[in-house]
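## Example record

The block below lists the input lines for one assembly entry, exactly as stored, with component labels intact.
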Amino acid sequence: GENVEQHPSTLSVQEGDSAVIKCTYSDSASNYFPWYKQELGKRPQLIIDIRSNVGEKKDQRIAVTLNKTAKHFSLHITETQPEDSAVYFCAGYRGSTLGRLYFGRGTQLTVWP
Amino acid sequence: DTEVTQTPKHLVMGMTNKKSLKCEQHMGHRAMYWYKQKAKKPPELMFVYSYEKLSINESVPSRFSPECPNSSLLNLHLHALQPEDSALYLCASSQTDRGDYEQYFGPGTRLTVT
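Predicted structure tokens for the full assembly:
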């Protein structure tokens, strides 16, 4: 099956700085890559996703880039704020695996004021 | 209504008890999921229901028994659990069972097995 690796496991940044989280995947047939944010004690929530026919997607301060050749995708958060502090999970999906998302191990992002 | 609800929020049970977790969504989604999540770990898929039929069982022990009474409800029946089963149990739903539709998660049930 698919294997998604995520780095770093922890990331601390100063408020206003940028944060980058990287994920690699093993299955070249994977075609959908969502990012979920989980605040402490809360449910995971989708913040952005990208499909394999697109190289980059932006939503305000958040962007995701995808390099299909290298099989990696990254989450970029600019102008970080304390409320961005959370665990972020990347995931991959292969079209033939019904509903099965393969999650990375997560990155604990802490934004210091 | 774009929310998935779960009850109870917290559950403490002994190893000989029988209990049930409940999940509900009214978004018209046709796929529903059960995940288990340990602290600081990603959600682990347990079961997937598609159009009220079980489509994925990720080799979950039989002490966990899922049920989908209708398209809006999902239950997880628990029996003879072990302490290592203590975790956050998350329900999720999506428009279809294709993994490239957003999965909406419920707030979870925090389960402690004593």
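The interface with chain B takes residues 31-32, 34, 42-46, 49, 51, 87, 89, 93-95, 97-101, 103-106, 108 of chain A (CB under 8 Å). The radius of gyration of chain A is 14 Å.
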